[in-house]
Amino acid sequence: xxxxxxxxxxxxxxxxxxxxxxxxxxxxxxxxxxxxxxxxxxxxxxxxxxxxxxxxxxxxxxxxxxxxxxxxxxxxxxxxxxxxxxxxxxxxxxxxxxxxxxxxxxxxxxxxxxxxxxxxxxxxxxxxxxxxxxxxxxxxxxxxxxxxxxxxxxxxxxxxxxxxxxxxxxxxxxxxxxxxxxxxxxxxxxxxxxxxxxxxxxxxxxxxxxxxxxxxxxxxxxxxxxxxxxxxxxxxxxxxxxxxxxxx
Length: 248
Description:
By secondary structure, this protein is an all-alpha fold. It has a single domain (about 15-245), classed as Rhodopsin 7-helix transmembrane proteins (Rhopdopsin 7-helix transmembrane proteins), CATH 1.20.1070.10. It is about 75% helix and about 0% strand. The longest helix has 30 residues, at about 215-245.
């Protein structure tokens, strides 16, 4: 049983801190970080202006869903020494669209329409489904699936940097405009961490520098870092926006 795994399974002193142990450790830290962030966001909901409570709640849901999945991904990795690809993509299919929802919520007061929400959600689902095909089911065509996934990613980035999201944010007030700009940087830079993990984890990743075997543990290290930076970071930006607006 996964739940019976102890710390002795995580670190073997006779082997030193190898890549498998280091990867398992990032799963453990990711679990704790997501849980802490969730508790913080949930407890702070009542300390922000009512109009921002849904946004802060969504931030808490994002990290809570991730914490639950990380708990199981950690145990799965320790038990099997293989990447928990299925669990990870289930997590992303729930949390990444919620991250896109945040753009809609903070620009809704400026006139954001449900059509924008569905554009962001649909693009995020396409990005993830094509990524899953390339990483798990059709690895021989991982480059093709990666290009399709990248196209959906760049569409989201376009909406945030140059499209409807930016236009609406500019008319929603300086606080919203500033928060949206920071979130846009997360999309452009923070989300760019994931293609690196994808390349490392698919055949011939980075010209073979990390090997080409299935379930490369380096891929999970990159993904775990990306999740912590983006999911917690997104929430903190939303929380900062909510607090600054509440104090005005």
